[in-house]
Design a protein that fits this description.
This protein is α+β, with helices and mostly antiparallel strands and 67 residues long. It has 1 helix and 2 strands; from the N terminus they run ββα. The longest helix has 31 residues.
């Protein structure tokens, strides 16, 4: 099996609404894809990057509020 590098930007994005009405972007993974493992890894990396970025932004905002 050859491995294909799948980037998060290669995956489709779907916007859904959380129960509180907040829009949430989700990466869509095709379960029948020949590169399912790589697709899941790309989606995971995208999610981790987004969460880390959000935490950094919140951390900087909290630091400024404490100053």
């Amino acid at each position: 099996m050859t491995r294909k590098n799948v980037r998060p930007s290669d995956l489709k994005t779907k916007i859904v609404h959380a129960p509180d009405g907040t829009p949430v972007r989700l990466k869509v993974v095709n379960a029948d894809s020949q590169t399912l493992g790589e697709d899941l890894l790309a989606a995971f990396r995208s999610n981790v990057r987004r969460v880390v970025d959000e935490r950094r932004k919140r951390g900087h905002a909290q630091d400024a509020a404490q100053a």
